[in-house]
Design goal:
The chain contains three helices and twelve strands. By secondary structure, it is mostly beta strands. It has one domain: Porin. Strand 6 and strand 7 form a beta hairpin.
């Protein structure tokens, strides 16, 4: 019994001594960097990224963009920038093509007017994205290294951004000569022109946000993939949502014209993917201690 008591006493003394030593010694990693000898790709560097982009989940038209963003990184976490992209080309979505396949080539011109629009009338009603731009603030919370086939290694970082989105829309065209007028009636003493005075273009403003990934090829070049979301008021289809008209045509003051303007706009999501190459200046990136 005495031997067991002495053994327990010895174990207790050793435990107290080790704990006291650990408290006195402290944590050897306290205050140390998470990664040593890390290449500092971002702090105090300019980033210039030419890119190609494409819109997606759009109802009527898909836009293709070319552009560039310029960004300054204050440190590993925060940066500010400005992006501008121009759309030289847009194509009809599957929905638009399907609708057009059911429409006549020209409007009927008899007395009893068929309200179904023609193919060209639908084309004229749709707006088109021409410019997408805006300033933003970016936050880069994560970085790391990835391997390709366990032989080629790449550094990467993941970032989020938000700011002001600015979009220039080209409105539908006005082609009054090819449309016909409905006859006046007791309910509507003026003739109602079937043409739509399109005013669904112009500059639109709203919030933008997104997420991106950079994969570094070397210390000054990276592959950049980015998702960008904007929330703007627009009228992509050229709908006259409130049914307003204005009296007075080009040659006849007794004609009512259907109007599509900013009053018909609604808030819509506009989203893009961008694929680009980022160049960093100065070209040399130091290592951490």
């Amino acid at each position: 019994m005495k031997k067991l008591f002495n053994l327990l006493l010895l174990v207790n003394l050793l435990t107290v001594s080790v704990a006291a030593y650990a408290v006195k010694r402290g944590d050897p990693l306290e205050g140390q960097p998470a990664v040593r000898r890390r290449i500092l790709y971002l702090p105090n560097r300019f980033e210039v990224s030419p890119s190609l982009g494409v819109s997606f989940l759009q109802d009527y038209k898909h836009s293709f963009l070319i552009g560039v963003k310029a960004e300054y990184h204050f440190n590993d976490l925060f940066s500010i920038g400005f992006a501008a992209h121009y759309s030289p080309l847009s194509i009809d979505s599957g929905l638009t093509s399907e609708i057009k396949s059911t429409l006549p080539n020209e409007l009927e011109t008899d007395t009893y007017i068929n309200p179904t629009p023609s193919k060209s009338a639908m084309t004229d009603a749709l707006d088109t994205i021409r410019m997408v731009m805006g300033p933003y603030v970016a936050y880069t919370p994560a970085f790391g290294k990835m391997a390709l086939f366990s032989s080629v290694f790449f550094n990467f970082d993941l970032y989020f951004f938000g700011g002001l989105g600015i979009v220039q829309l080209e409105s539908g065209s006005l082609n009054s000569s090819k449309y016909v007028d409905s006859p006046s009636s007791a309910a509507s003493p003026h003739r109602l022109h079937l043409d739509i005075r399109e005013e669904n273009g112009g500059w639109k403003f709203g919030p933008q946000a997104g997420v991106g990934l950079k994969v570094f090829i070397n210390r000054s070049v990276a592959i950049n993939v980015e998702f960008r979301w904007l929330y703007i008021k627009r009228n992509a289809a050229g709908f006259d949502t409130n049914g307003d008209t204005v009296l007075g045509g080009p040659t006849d003051n007794q004609t009512e014209w259907v109007i599509v303007d900013s009053k018909d706009d609604i808030w819509e999501n506009t989203m893009f993917f961008h694929f680009g190459v980022s160049f960093f200046f100065p070209r040399w990136a130091p290592r951490s201690k």
